[in-house]
Amino acid sequence: MTVLIGKEGNFDLESVIAARPDYIFVSASKHGGFESLKECGIPLISHHGYKETDPLGQAEWIKLIGLLTGETRRANAIFESIERRYLALKDEVLKYDSSHRRPTVVCGRQLRDGWYVSGGRSYLAQLLKDAGADYIMSDNEDSGGLTLDFETVYARALHAEYWLTDGSHADGFSMVTLAKEDSRYTTMDAYKNKRVVFCNFAQTPYRELAGVQPYFLLADFVKAFHPGLLPDYEPKYYKLLE
Q: Who contacts 110 (Cβ-Cβ below 8 Å, separation ≥6)?
């Protein structure tokens, strides 16, 4: 059942109470507006899953959901399956790495005030490492995202072999779309060699499911960076742009 309860700082408390939830999950990234929900007398639980820097650590939050819903055994079994598939592919990449070079990767792109990138100790950085790639920001110590000026990232990204980015585009996204955003992108090696890997949030369930499907994210990257490892795999979230 879906119930519209308003937005942060302006909740419809009557709708919240009428829905009779046992718990209310709130994002740890929000900083206001939840105080009014406490008046409903319903326990608030901060969900910090998105802060995990390990892909399996993020998926493991499914165990909390299992505990709260009385499905502990089922949740544990699902996580064990997720973990087994992820580690098996990670091991396969490690063996492959011993005789093949690791491609370099840049992520993000210019958004309003600067180029948004993931930190060198972030969830995405760990995925790239597990996928057998060298992230151009690997010397950075941030575990979240950060915004740098265009020139700083561009200097590092110019000769990166692959470019990982995302966005929400109902009508699709292409190399042409990217070039129209900023003509400087077309001078980058990844653009010129058509090695841009894109996730379209409007056409994939990334926000809804990717957190508990790290195997598919890892497989998407392996398919892009080392296509010979997964010849029959069809990417789920991140795909090379046409």
A: 116, 150, 181, 182
| Type of residue found at 118 | S
Query: In sequence order, which residues have a C-beta less than 8 Å from that of residue 1 and are 6 or more positions away?
Result: 19
Q: Rounded to an integer, what distance in angstroms lies between the CA atom of residue 237 and that of residue 220?
A: 7
The pLDDT tens digits for 135-178 are 999 999 999 999 999 999 999 999 999 999 999 999 889 999 99
pTM, 2 dp: 0.89
Orientation angle between helical segments 72-97 and 214-225, nearest 10 degrees: 20
Show Cβ contacts of residue 235 under 8 Å, excluding neighbours closer than 6 positions. Answer: 219, 220, 223, 224
Mean pLDDT rounded to a whole number for the chain: 91
CATH topology of domain 84-240: Rossmann fold (3.40.50)
Residues 105 and 3: their CA atoms lie apart, in Å, by: 41
Q: In what order do the strands lie in the sheet with 162-167?
A: 134-135, 104-107, 162-167, 196-200, 238-240
Asked if 202 contacts 156 with a C-beta cutoff of 8 angstroms, the reply is no
List pLDDT tens digits, range 198-242.
999 999 999 999 999 999 999 999 999 999 999 999 999 999 998
Q: Which sequence spans correspond to the domains of the chain?
A: 1-47, 84-240
Q: Are 236 and 208 in contact (CB under 8 A)?
A: no
